[in-house]
Task: inverse folding
């Protein structure tokens, strides 16, 4: 199926492809300061959360997804109407039954971002 898909990464999110589903449930986030290891994987930079990340994550339609890792692509992996962004963040979550939920953000150059500023290296 993946080999024949038409929406494989990278994806250009265009106005004509985007549909708004008003019946989707709310996304609730619950994050706390947590220990993680930062790693340069060559194609991106990743924050891998150390064990005991219970309670960190999101809830969608009553299903809890625990935050597993955050990684950044520069420039962005995906585009909106052909526009590439300076940075793209993917917050990768997983439910107890193994389903994934990824929350993504695009960054433009400008004011400092509190999430990025909170990532510090301590040895």
Result:
């Amino acid at each position: 199926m993946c080999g024949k898909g038409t929406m494989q990464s990278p994806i250009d999110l265009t106005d004509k492809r985007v549909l708004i589903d008003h019946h989707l449930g709310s996304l609730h986030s619950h994050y706390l300061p947590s220990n993680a290891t930062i790693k340069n994987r060559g194609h991106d930079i990743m924050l891998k959360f150390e064990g005991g990340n219970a309670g960190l994550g999101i809830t969608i339609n009553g299903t809890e997804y625990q935050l597993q890792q955050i990684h950044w692509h520069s420039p962005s992996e995906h585009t909106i109407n052909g526009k590439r962004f300076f940075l793209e963040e993917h917050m990768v979550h997983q439910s107890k039954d193994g389903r994934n939920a990824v929350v993504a953000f695009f960054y433009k150059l400008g004011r400092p971002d509190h999430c990025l500023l909170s990532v510090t290296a301590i040895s």
The beta strands are 12-13, 27-30, 36-40, 45-49, 57-60, 63-73, 79-80, 83-84, 87-94, 100-107. The radius of gyration is 16 Å. The chain has a mean pLDDT of 84.
